Request: fold
Amino acid sequence: MRTLPAGREMTIVAALAVVVVVTGIVHPSFVSGQGLHDLFLNASIIALLAVGQTLLVITRNIDLSVGSVMGLTAYLSGQLFLADQNTPTILVLAAGIGLGAVCGAINGALVAIAKVPALVVTLGTLYVFRGINHAWASSTDVQQVNAYQMSPDFLSFGSGSVLGIPNLSLIALAVLAVVAYSLHGYRAGRELYAIGSNPDAARLAGIPMGRRVFGAFVISGALVGLGGATHAAYFGTINASVGTGRELAVVAAVVVGGVAIFGGSGTVVGAVLGALLLTTITSALPVLGVPAFWQRAVDGAALLLAISADRAVLVRMAARLRARQHSIRSGR
Amino acid sequence: MTRLLRWETVLIGLCVVVLGYGTIGVDGFGEAAHISFLLLDYTEVALLAFALLPIVLTGQIDLSVASVLGFCSALTGKLWDGGMSFETIVPIVLVAGVVLGAVNAVLIVRFGLPALAVTIGTLGLYRGLAYVVLGDGAVTGFPENYRPLATDAIAGTFVPYVTVLVVLVGVAMAVLVHQSTVGRALYAIGLGEQTARFSGVRVRPIMMSLYLLSGVLAALASLVYTLRYNSARADNANGLELVAVAAVLLGGVSIFGGRGTVLGVAAALLAMAGLRNVLFLGDVSDEIQNVITGALLIISVLVPVAVAAVTRRKARSHLRRTDEVPLR
Reply:
């Protein structure tokens, strides 16, 4: 069992290497220092969302509202700067995390307490949160917030780097390290796997399922909120449709990263590698002369390919196990 | 069964309230033109909802319906732009719908992959392919002799032609679901796939054909959509799957399968169309309408879950009184 996730991560790294090398040969600037810098920067925000989504998918839940929550928190950042252009960066990030956590808590309460399937809840809140975002924009008549209206400090945080590594990537790596450690190092983390693996057994084992799932939604929401705020800092232009359709890319990244959609297995490292692979493919497409229109199709196809491959591996493993059992029984 | 009947009664009551309030309280709601508009506006949603209904009855889902619509619309635009006659385009587009449905069917039924993951994937894939086919432009100028079929009411009445189509599809679906062996098999699969298989239900062929049917109906909806707006775009009906899923669930169909009726879904569609028109005439913005649709979706699932929880608690206290130990 231990070797399967590690195998998945190596596969993604290999695929990543192929994409980077091929694109690098066609277009050398793709693998220049600046090119790699941009690659990591682009993957950072989606990686934050993928880490949060992984927590949910492990417990056999899903959050389709991530794009809307990201849009709402990014829009909040813009509104904060309109209220006071000198709002400290840390306050904007905290506000984004807070609002994200609130959205996550709403989803989590409906799923964990009211026991409504996460798919339905988050499909509903996808439209509710996006609608609130648009309504907020039209009631305040602020359709767009531009870079010149934000604080220079915030923007330089978004595009800055430390020792050549982008700030946003450092944040994503720090989050990844903390969550990856917590999932294995803490009891609550391991319980998430138990819940997704077999909910009935988890309940009988005395795991507080409701509280764990609720917690996973809140943490995931907070990470999406952080993603929204950092999106504002990175792009410097915010409107009410930021993050539209992002849920597809996030779910695709998580599934490509080897997190089983039916819960109980997968790692955040895999999910982040999945995010990195998909963003790299997306950035490589225009370089290779493929129109940008293909991006959505590629995300969808990658998701389908990943689940099909998983299934094939599973079927072959089951066949091998059966063959071994057979040979044991027949006394060989 | 009695509870099901009650849910449909509630829905029909809701219809009466919405339509009654609209007629009395909202200017212009009762006019023939507005009734036509109300019916027209939900044509595509109704077709997609009828496509989803049998799939949800078996406990699965198809989130790609609106993307199939989008792809078929883009294909219509591309072929029309290329000078093909509309009569040739119609069968091609319907076949395209079948093919897209078949991809879902093979991945889900043949390979045994989870329907949710597959159709989230094809939601992106088909929408992406729509952009690949047509780019982000629009094709207009569809033939004048066919467009009235999608926009006009039958002469002398307020019933649009496409509403007749919707009613026909609805009746056909009612016969399939409630009067046929296949229909009973759908409920059996939804309540327990393995039990159904052991009882001799041919689960795989039935499931396969449901996804093909979903593809055809989505393609049909795309033709209506394209003609109605006289515009083929890759982003046509983006997000419409939400409204269709909301209608199905509000109609009392259980997301876990095995429970629901065509009448319930039809009543839910009428109530939602009426509500949308009331809101539209009341100058409520599209954004707020989306909030309301999303909230309706959540409430429609919340109510049955709450009812079930209350019934279960009652049953449990009853069990305790009779000194039996509940197993679950």
